[in-house]
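INFO batch 0412 | record 1 of 1 | parsing
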Amino acid sequence: DHADAYNNLGVALEESGAVEDAVGSYKQAILHNAAHSEAHCNLADALQSLGRIDEAILEYHVAIAQNPGDADTVNNLGVALEASGSIKDAIAAYSTAVATKPDHWDAQCNLADALQLHGELDRAAELPEGFRDYSRLALKPDHANRPIWVCPDGVIFLEAASPWYAPAYDFLVAVAEPVARPEHVHQYRMTPNSLYAAVAVAIQPEEIVAVLDKLSKVALPRRVRAFILDCTKNYGRAKLVLRENRHYVEADGADAASALRELLSNAEIRAARDDEDATTPGGARDNNEEASFAVGDVQAEAAANRAYLELAAELDDDAPDDESSDESDEDDDSSDDDDDDEGPAFAAAAAGRGQQPSADRASASKKQRKERSSSKKRGKRQAAQAGQLSRRRTLSFRLRQGSAQDVKRVAAKELDFPLQEEYDFRHDASNATLPIDLRPTTKIRNYQEKSLQKMFGNGRARSGIIVLPCGAGKTLTAIVAAATVKRWTLVLCTNATAVAQWKAQFALWTTLDPKRVSLFTSDVKDELHAECGILITTYHMISFGGKRAADGERLIEQVKQREWGLMLLDEVHVVPAATFRKVLALCNAHCKLGLTATLVREDDLITDLNFLIGPKLYEANWMDLTHAGHLANVQCVEVWCAMAAPFYREYLRAGGAASLSGLASSSHAAGAGGSDDASSLGAVTPSTSQTARAHRSQLADGANGRKGSEANLMMRRRRLLYVMNPVKFRACEYLVRYHEDRGDKIIVFADDVYALLWYAKKLNRPAIYGATKEAERQAVLSSFRFNATVNTVCLSKVGDVAIDLPEANVIVQVSSHFGSRRQEAQRLGRILRAKPNADGSDGFNALFYTLVSKDTSEMFYSTKRQQYLVDQGYTFKVITNLKTRGADSVLNTPEAELDLLNEVLNAQWQQQEEAEEKALQKAARDDLAGNASALGVLGGSGAASGSAFGAAGGTKRATLQMSKLSGGQGITYFEYDAAKVGDLSSKTADKKRHALFKSRANKAAKRAF
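INFO prediction complete | emitting tokens
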């Protein structure tokens, strides 16, 4: 057959490097047999290798039409489509290839990469991650002097040993999302949200492309360049501004009208428009642009962020003679620069790695000459800018009340048109000025200064999120932001304890009059200052939609009507998105700053923060802060504890024979035999939340028709068995005694309340959990801080946040909340405060132990929990043979272990767990305690049922002051005449009386008669 012969000739020519001749042979094969699908496919491959992408795509389509089941051809079509910039079509092709051949590994990897480039991170996370082959990337001749690798799939690797590590890190953390930052090589990935964050801090798309190309060891891939420009084309075209407590969508420049019309093309945004002077209903406008939108002007501003162009110039061999170098020097003199002086930082980093002092002096003198020679040029350019762009026209339209968050969501997610939020607080004459300044003794660290420069880079306050580790000074960073804005400030916290801590921090770091700081909690409802002040409250106090006391209702109305200059949101990751939307809809603020140590959740709601609050402005590297002495040098240790034989036997029995018979093989293959969720262990799942859901679903399906509550009880028993493992207790007992003898301060964490109380009792140490009274809690914490004889405290999950114990330097974690990465990082944060030998010169000065029972599901969850800390650069040391048995141990005999097993199997743990949940709900809904509980005293069980305790059917009791009962705080005491109330008639009352009191009442009535 001539077609086959020509096709085989083409393959041979292509292998020899004669690709053009191979194309001719493939075409000859197709002339002899137009239905030769293999020749069409080979021709497409050859055309693609020559860069003739459009022709290749046509040939792939012909080949697929002839042979639809060829997954290889469909995958190759996706590669060609992606190279042409058609990411969505490429995703469709990869998906078809995977559906045709589920085990097609190349198609799966390509699909995952394309989804991540397109910003569909949730779908990408559901696909298996495999190896990526970057060996074909051609290195630049001077690659040794460049610190990063930019790969075609958007992944970026940074060499930590490079002399240019520090500036390259500052740049990458601004334009990409950190994936993993171990000691030697960091991994980042560019996403639409990370690029939005970069543009939000005034880094232009062209600058991103230029700097990446300068830093990269390989040529910047074409599709990465196209991805950057495509994702950023709409960023900055429109802004969301607040004027007179109403939100407006505003645009300026030549395409202002087209930008607003593009937004209004969406039906939901069009419905949110609230123009009272609109001439045409339904969003239709006449042809006059100025009649369609409100017209204004805005003072022009010069580009503020040029530090990254300076980086590109410094890396360029010809940079000293470049004009961009002058521009970089020009902007270095600006006090409003978006980043600190990168040039001196580069020189210091280079000098610290062995450059000669003479070279440094020559470089410095050269820079001084350049500054002197360019001073006149700067003046001319500034005058020209002031004359040509002194004022710009703006167009805007107003939004309906409460619709701003929905508009931001639709614009960002559906239209790829995110709205920027900036506050020109320096020129805001409509709001009062807050007389707040930092104390002379207040000093901030370099990373705190960098994060604030990202927020105030162009002289305005940008909305966004700052991510700093626990103990790194997030509160001080926010206080400096409030002292910079100097306007009405609203601080939102997670609970009342955090509210008190924030007030103390404002008093510690600033000169603000304490009378200007108001609190809004269940116990304290301060009036807002008459002129200008700060309000500190909780999310749930603002979002509570039920009936409030009179003083609370009056205060919440003032909060709603106030036009806040700055809103500080503490621990933004722990609040559900629904609560966020409600709080942000009720409170209007010019600028919102979110603070967190762990920008991670086990669900998919974390990405909503990009449009609810703003982009991530800055994220610090945990290891860099540790090496600089700002954080404790923590050694993470995982202690494997073998299950005691009687406990493991009961653990297997609680798992059920039906579930184990089908899962034994995968269980042992995964190294976790006997686990009830061994099927999850057999495959790497994308997220812990999905694992937990699959785990619960499997329990329900594998129970042979048992009810869901019964399956939950069995799961709860298995959990209690591996937490109460005698070997684990002896390990905890040994570690507590060992570190107390060293003079350390130890925290024992246990999510299981029954186990927590048992451990505390046997160790003879104090414990704090949800039901612990506040007075007792404060007494225990105070003793732990200041009493040398109290060196250990046992905490439940209530100690994860809002408890400040800087003296603690050892954590022993007995149990945890499944695979929560956030909880693992939060608990590590309890000991991250800098210690006396903070530079690590004396080795590790803090220890984080995790006790894990072997061959149980706890091992799988422990691995998932550690992932976030591993990505931050921490390493876990595994101890498999800790010698713990001793004569002085509480569990030193087999009989003692059997007694404990009997106690566990008959444990009444429900009471402690319910008390813990009720207390946590009460802490989260502290507004109910201040409003509904007070009303419940007068309203009976109906009012009490709205509280956390009412749900359990118990009686609600509350202690009230006389001022409340007399109407001083909106609560009035009423007296009723029983004779006039029908339901309190003597007949009804007698039915409710005890027989003894009935008899006495009857005798008294007869005597009176």
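INFO post-check: The mean pLDDT is 74.
INFO record closed
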